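Translate sequence into structure tokens.
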Amino acid sequence: MMTGTILLVEDNLSDIELAQRALKKANILNPLVIAEDGQEALDYLFCTGQYSQRDPAQAPIMVLLDINLPRVSGLEVLAQIRRHEQTKRLLVVILTSSKEEHDVAMGYDLGVNSYIRKPVDFHEFAEAIKQLGLYWFVLNESPHQ
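Result follows.
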């Protein structure tokens, strides 16, 4: 299992709690940082604003990114991640309820690693998180940041 922080970018409290429960159920025990909007996510990633004292060497190992966010959209967050040298290889998984084909296409055009639609049922959601963890943290070979 990869060690390091997971950044969850989600503005819906129910979905935050659901993700926390699903990660725990899947035995993904990495520290979880929650950003409730796109600007907070960018501040965390680039050590600005309220995160200006965060050590940039301690980058998250994964970003779970909703796309329907206040202030800055998830797709814009993804675009900014891919635009910067220090984050361009960061593992980003869009985890959203959007079923818009345009969102899927745009996510991949912007360089997302995976796009997952949030299942409504908790058990299905927990299984999706378990499979996500198995693939990205155990099976997948990633370049070092």
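Note: The chain has five helices and five strands.
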